[in-house]
Design goal:
With 175 residues, the protein is mainly α. 63% of the residues lie in helices and 0% in strands.
Length: 175
């Protein structure tokens, strides 16, 4: 690379004149207060915060892997045990949300299979169609016709009536 001898084309920026430092016999109060603040307030707080973060790093809690303990079913609650009723209702709501998500995931898998297979979807996605039919039938048997205001008690009564009808049909068939 040839050296540029034309200094007029690429001028060197002018140097700055140094700022004269004021030296007085009185110390700067701002610097004094900053130093006191750093040692009295900031250093202990920083130390405690880092110590807490180290302790929390040892025990990581992943909220999305939280496992709830199973509570007794509504049929196992004693009469007048309202806390048990409340816990059974909350458990039923969680189970219903999980079952809704299972149905939705199977439905999405079927849609992805249909999208992927195109015209061959009827023979290549038969397993997904059968799985969706089983899952939706199980969901409908348990939660169907409950409506938006369904709860654990109405679901239990629905299951009881279904079991009574199955026993009655079985008794009629054996006669």
């Amino acid at each position: 690379m040839p050296e540029d001898s034309d200094w007029e084309a690429y001028k060197v920026p002018p140097t700055r004149t140094p700022v004269s430092e004021r030296t007085t016999s009185v110390p700067n109060p701002v610097a004094f207060f900053q130093t006191v603040f750093n040692y009295v307030v900031d250093a202990p707080v920083t130390f405690v915060r880092e110590w807490i973060e180290r302790q929390q790093a040892k025990n990581k809690f992943y909220y999305y892997h939280q496992k709830f303990r199973r509570v007794p079913d509504l049929s196992e609650c004693l009469e007048g045990d309202y806390l048990c009723f409340f816990e059974a209702e909350a458990q039923w709501r969680r189970d219903r949300m999980v079952d809704q998500e299972i149905v939705e995931i199977v439905r999405e898998r079927l849609g992805a299979c249909k999208q992927r297979e195109g015209p061959n979807q009827f023979q290549n996605c038969a397993k997904e169609v059968e799985l969706l039919a089983q899952v939706t039938k199980a969901y409908q048997d348990r939660y169907g016709d409950l409506g938006v205001h369904g709860n654990a008690r109405t679901c239990l009564m629905k299951q009881k009536h279904r079991m009574m009808e199955e026993r009655k049909a079985q008794a009629n068939a054996s006669q």
